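REQUEST ID: PR-0412
SUBMITTED BY: lab tech R.K.
PRIORITY: routine
TASK: structure prediction, single protein chain
INPUT:
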Amino acid sequence: MSVINKNDILAVLQVLKRYKFKDTENTLKKEANLPDIPEILTHDASDSVFETYQSEGDPDTYVACYSELRKFVDSSLDDNKFELSMILYPVFVHMYIELVYNNHEDQARVMMEKFGPEQEYYYQDDIKRLAMTTKRNQMSGNDITDTFKSNEFIIRISRDTLSLLKQHLQEMKANVLINIINEHLYFDLYEGMARNKTQCAATAGALLGEAKRQDNKVKIYYGLLKEPDYQQMMTQASLTEEENDDDIDVDRLKKKKSRKDSVFGKKTKSDPNAPPLDRVILPQLRETELSEKIKALREAQKRVDLGPDCLPSVCYYTLLNSLHTVTCAEIAEDSSFIAIGFSNAKIKIWSMTPAKLRELKSAEELKDIDREVDDVLVRMMDDRKAEASKILLGHTGPVYSCSFTFDRSLLLSCSEDSTIRLWSLQTWTCLVVYKGHLNPVWDVKFSPHGYYFVSCSHDKTARVWTTDSPHPLRIFAGHLSDVDVCTFHPNSNYVATGSSDRTVRLWDVLTGNNHVRLMTGHKGAIYSIVFSMCGRYLASGSNDKVINVWDLAHGHLVASLASHTSTIHSLCFSRDGTILASGALDCNLKLWDFSKLCEDLSGENVNVSHNPNVKSGENYLLRTFSTKQSPFITLHFTRRNLLFGVGLFESS
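STATUS: complete
OUTPUT:
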């Protein structure tokens, strides 16, 4: 028997022993001719992972070693102090874990009480969870110890700063400290001057430090796909409508054509950064979708161009008597429907226009309809059953997110019951239940081109699906905690995710491999992400009350917009990409000048050795709108750049 096969069998035997499948275990041992392995099977697999923490050193030296390290950092020159200070937190965590593993509980408690509170504020929640582990048998299963034992903490550091650290460690001769740094820390070296305090703080805060520069070197296609020639289709449609009109206003038609050219000229240009059209197979447009596209472009001709001197009008929808029952809200792309998810597993859909929600006629009635008439789709719907709202039932837990297709024919929903459901908005029934996630599903989003959708879950994964398959096409694994939010890139080639591990990641739908961008800088869990209309930038909002803007071309943090005083739950770009709107639990809506930010960024040279200087938000905030007592849960720009907001009323 080969060594590989033997190791595989031993791994299976360990699982069988853990779950007490005695008969199966004995049968496998007999068939594999491995009767004498009690010492292997009685060895706890989780202990083997923690063996690097085995130490026979004096437990009383840990506090002294850490104190000396802290004094060295504090006394260093400002040029290197801030990079050196980034090693204090991971060293503290691993020292504490090592003390607990070696049953030095009193010294571990002293270490936690003395040095825990002085760590950075954004690590305090992690430290509280770590402090719950006070005995060796509690280590397996604690998410912080599990994460730190299996991964290296990443610190980006200049060569000069690392030389100073090495020199100090040699002088100290502290084996405990040297072993921890060698075993559990990874230094991502770069040449040049060390970073200052602001630069270090900009990318700090993630569960396991910063991103390696290697993580963001893969070329990505952030450009937009070239759209079909809808202008020709619209021209033909317009001629059909006006061919019977005897009094055609020539000047009006010229103005109309000029307006069309300005709208379509932006959409039909080839983007040098766009992916090949066949890189990811996209579905063919159905007749209803094509009709909806043409309708959307007609609406775009009437769109208001926004800017500092022309801010959008805002329409706010308040949900009454729903503070502890509403869990999510979503508005359809054409602003005609709104879907609300509830904690009692219901989904309620309202019409936002005077038109009521109609249902497809029965099969018997559909037989009698002439398929050749122009209004066949209208005749298929039953006006007798039209209602202002509809309720969808099927989930067995709170509904956390909903997503409409572009043509409003389908709705996705995800729930605490670990499933995703696809609903028909013509029959108002559930078509498919997608099972695959192991835990509650927090978010789900359709691709801009339909057919594909992405979901994310408490199981630390994001998954890409197609509507016609019950199994995921891609499983994106790499986050170290819940994946709270996800969305598709406008070209449908990439998926962005935000997590409670305080990182934002970009994944390639084509390859399905490791992330192609890893972006750190948030100090709290990420609850909202949105791509810019041009596809190059990604904005993310967090419970650290900050909006970060990332340049996907290099994976750099380019702006940090701080003005909110509570968790940011919704971000939305205007249809022309000039305004970024943000809504938060502080009951404030803020409008940011994104076009000015892009102009400021276009003239800067990118330093690839480390993150460039991050722009602050006070230069880009245009206006703040406050509600009385209604925190925001979603925002939506209509095709004409009217801004819709949805929130819950909090009674005093």
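NOTES: Confidence is low (pLDDT under 50) at residues 38-49, 244-248, 253-267.
REVIEWED BY: pending
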